[in-house]
Amino acid sequence: MKKAATCSACSGDRTSFSMCPAAEKNMHVCGAASKCTCKCMACRVFAVPIMKGMMDMGLTLTEKILKAHLVEGEMVKGSEIGIRIDQTLTQDATGTMAYLEFEAMGVPRVRTERSVAYIDHNTLQNGFENADDHRFIGSVAKKHGIYFSRPGNGICHQVHLERFGVPGKTLIGSDSHTPTGGGIGMIAMGAGGLDVAVAMGGGTYYITCPKVVKVELTGKLSPWVAAKDVILEVLRRMSVKGGVGKVIEYCGEGVKTLSVPERATITNMGAELGATTSIFPSDEVTKQFLEAQGRGEVWSEQKADADAVYDEELHINLSELVPLAACPHSPDNVKTVAEIGKLKIDQVCIGSCTNSSLLDMMKVAHILKGKTVNPDVSLAIAPGSKQVLNMMADMGILGTLIAAGARILESACGPCIGMGQSPNSGGISLRTFNRNFLGRSGTKDGQIYLVSPELAAYSALTGYLSDPRELGEMPEFVLPEKFSVNDNMIVLPAPEEEMDKVEILRGPNIKPFPETAPLEATIEAGCSLKVGDNITTDHIMPAGAKILPLRSNIPAISQHCFTVCDEAFPKRAKEMGQSIIVGGSNYGQGSSREHAALAPLYLGVKAVLVKSFARIHRANLINAGILPLTFVNEADYEKIAQGDVLELADIRKHIEAGETTLTLVNKTTGAEIPVLCELTGRTKDIILAGGLLDYTRDKLSK
Ligand code: MIC
Ligand code: SF4
Which ligand 2 atom minimizes the distance to the CA of 435? Predict the structure, then answer.
């Protein structure tokens, strides 16, 4: 037997060691314990994948799909990898900008297996802007080889799952809830519009090679306990930042008890963990779902190896779960119905990409059948797709909901993104959605609780937050053997030989991408704003009916930047000329909207210095040419006040030299603050060029 020795990384007594190749040092990290997740101190990557290669260990499903798509880098956790993207999706609120960027790249036809442009966010059309954007996106799609899902056809994630998703493929979408596709075994990730544009042009997509968290499901959900309660439980345990740098992989006996729409609810809301994505295996249940969609031929089995090694593990016994709710104003502020106690409600909204499937609607209709919505409650329901709505009509469900007093909305995002149905002042609203950030509903003091459709529907009858288990026995809800398939609202692109005949229709609100410039030699700028922890993209760039129509007009939308936190920010930042924003941890969580980077760019923000970033937002800042900096010592956050003058001397030279620890001088107080600027070869070049668009243009011209 080998003698045990101390591992340089985890200080544990181990018997087997290996060199960490990424460290370029003789740092020995242990690999004896197959579950070792110790960090190599030399390079700060995880030792497990290196061991896997050497010790012939099994792979997780995530690793299998990523490996099959790997085009750059090595599967070393924590390091940057480039992967090939099979499919892309866009929605209209991020799409106009993404297609302007795609046009600017000068690639004539998309080079993916399938790219789809959806119209689902800005469908209120209380002015010409939304309709103009729809026409612009439709014409770009037709010209450049993209399928176009017309307004009314449904929410991008729901429709993509039904009509386009393919197990084992990679998908990126300019929307943070793209991981919905993980419900059928795809690696589906949210990304900034520019990254999606590059992928449409055949470019590589770069991510940090993720850790993989195993969530082992056992047992079976009790009657009236829902898939939503599973993801709320994961959020309760892991928090809104617990998933950063990780993929959440579901496995175990409990998986087969969950239908595809239920799995998709779980992977969809995995976005709220800050995770890179979430994934379920593709099994017989997936096969049945795809066959029922008339797409059985795209099915393939996708699963982890039996001896796969995970970086972290979580166990959830489905039978032990109870109905839960995420309380204001964060999706991880999760409590049981009993813990919340008696809560009178004003509004219930059922829908969004999390809970708008036919299965959800079948359950809601069963609860509401023959009843009337409580007189003190307004109930709004938005089915997820035209297919769902059509089938609800065919099955008599729609009639049941209308008879009960539900207000039926268009198949679109609607209230989820503040497009109508804002609650009354201080109103309490139960929503089956995925986000309850402050102000997102359109009512600043609205109190939003995120719940399952079962809990929402039952509470709409009682007028109080109520436990749906009081309903007693639950019938078995079985999905139809065949969904009614009618793709008449999906417009096919023009054939390649006719693309030149397609005219691009541009409305007057569509303004070009803001100007960028290569990184300066030295940055001297004031701190225009100091904010705390968990700042969301809804704080940075609010949405809602008034602001969303400005998504294709950066000068106009930037006037709303950060106004949730500080009304005066846009004016102040513009007057300062150039500035730096300082923030806490998990800065930029939530949406993939690149407007949360483009508006600060337009207002002259040169760098954002925080305790930690959310993944997509950090990538968006780099793409916009804004320096993403983190404090080496979090306590230094206290050494900067709003208005202080900050300097990053010779920043260009330092970044060119590949230095990652830099010094920021607070010229107002004299404090010298070490900051991290972790840029790899590619991201370094993007920052030096002034953003991804300039970098890509340079590359293409060469
Ligand atoms: C959201 O749910 O916040 C959105 C609106 O879908 C965003 C995209 C956007 O801001 O346009 C997202 O999740 O990425
Ligand atoms: Fe639309 Fe809401 Fe889903 Fe975002 S979270 S895609 S706004 S339904």
Answer: 5
Instruction: Supply the pTM of this predicted model.
Output: 0.92
Rounded distance from Cα 117 to ligand 1 centre (Å):
15
Ligand 1 in reach of 436 Cβ (< 6 A): no
Strands 347-350 and 312-317: unpaired
For residue 179, the cross-strand partners are none
CA of 96, nearest ligand number: 1
Task: Tell me the mean pLDDT in the region 336-354.
Answer: 98
Tell me: pLDDT of 674 over 80: yes
- 172 forms beta bridges with 88, 189
Give the residue from 95, 131, 136 showing the smallest Cα distance to 115.
95
CB within 8 Å of 32: residues ≥ 6 apart? 14, 15, 16, 17
Q: Which of 413, 436, 536, 616 to mutate to test the pocket of ligand 2 (most atoms within 8 A of CB)?
A: 413
Residues within 6 Å of ligand 2 by CB: 121, 155, 175, 177, 352-353, 413, 416-417, 433-434
Query: What average pLDDT does this structure show over 342-353?
Result: 98
pLDDT at residue number 680: 87
| CA separation for the pair 132, 111 (Å, rounded) | 26
Smallest CA separation from ligand 2 atom 1, residue: 413
Average pLDDT over residues 678-692: 95
Between 553 and 53, name the one with better pLDDT: 553
Identify whether the C-beta of residue 267 lies closer than 8 Å to the C-beta of residue 293.
no
- Cβ atoms of 650 and 521 closer than 8 Å: yes
Taking the centre of ligand 2 as the mean of its atom positions, its distance from the CA of residue 480, in whole angstroms, is: 26
pLDDT tens digits for range 176-223: 999 999 999 999 999 999 999 999 999 999 999 999 999 999 999 999
Alpha helices in 541-632 (DSSP H): 554-557, 569-576, 595-602, 615-623
Which residue in 560, 555, 542 sits closest to 602, CA to CA? 555
**Which mutation among 155, 228, 589 tests ligand 2's pocket best, with the greatest number of atoms within 8 A of CB?**
155
Is the pLDDT score of 654 beyond 80? yes
Q: Is the CB of 591 under 6 A from ligand 1?
A: yes
Contact 177 CB / ligand 1 (< 6 Å) = yes
Determine the pLDDT at residue 698. Answer: 78
Q: What is the mean pLDDT of the chain?
A: 92
593 within ligand 1 shell (Cβ under 6 A):
yes
Ligand 2 atom with minimal separation from the 417 CA: 7
Cα–Cα–Cα angle for 152, 157, 162, nearest 5°?
80
Pair type for strands 672-676 and 661-666:
antiparallel
Mean pLDDT of 296-315: 97
- Asked whether 592 lines ligand 1 (CB < 6 A), one says yes
Q: Which two tokens stand for residue 264?
A: 């998709």
Q: Residue 592 C-alpha to ligand 2 middle, in angstroms?
A: 11
What mean pLDDT is predicted for residues 389-402?
98
Query: 225 alpha carbon to ligand 1 midpoint, in Å?
Result: 27
What pLDDT is stored for residue 165 in this prediction? 98
Non-local (6+) Cβ contacts of 657 within 8 A are none
Q: What does residue 202 show for φ and ψ, rounded to 5 degrees?
A: 95, 5
E strand intervals along 119-200: 147-149, 170-173, 187-190
